[in-house]
Amino acid sequence: MLKSRLAKDKLGMFLSGLCIGHCLLTPLALIAFGTSTAVGVLASEWVHIALYLPMILLVTLSIVPTCVHLQAYRPLVLGVAGILLMTISFGFFGISELLLSLAGASFVFAAHLLNSRAIKRQHCQATSGA
């Protein structure tokens, strides 16, 4: 059970990290290589959706239950704020989209990190009898 809960947060941090990497590297690749097919695929909208939808799912499946069970609200606030920022970024282009997406993915990463720490802390307290 503990490993399953932590695995969701690890996957959420991995996907958030991919999103951050994508946000930072795609513009650099476009500058360096132009709009070649490979770079064009990275810049396409479906890549954004492919990263965004699983992130929503993982916030829902990992952070929400921990918030309810442990009353750890900070990860939930960060996760929801991150998802909202990423949602808003779909309405922008250029540097505004980049900054909103980076902030959103960073918030979601931090939310999963705090969530996993809350789970570990609760597990340690439960096993030590405190």
From TrEMBL:
InterPro entries: Mercury-R_MerC. The lineage of its organism: Bacteria, Pseudomonadati, Pseudomonadota, Gammaproteobacteria, Alteromonadales. The keyword Ribonucleoprotein does not apply. GO terms for cellular component: membrane. The chain crosses the membrane at residues 12-34, 46-64, 76-93, 99-115. GO terms for molecular function: mercury ion transmembrane transporter activity. Keywords: Membrane, Transmembrane, Transmembrane helix. This is MerC domain-containing protein.
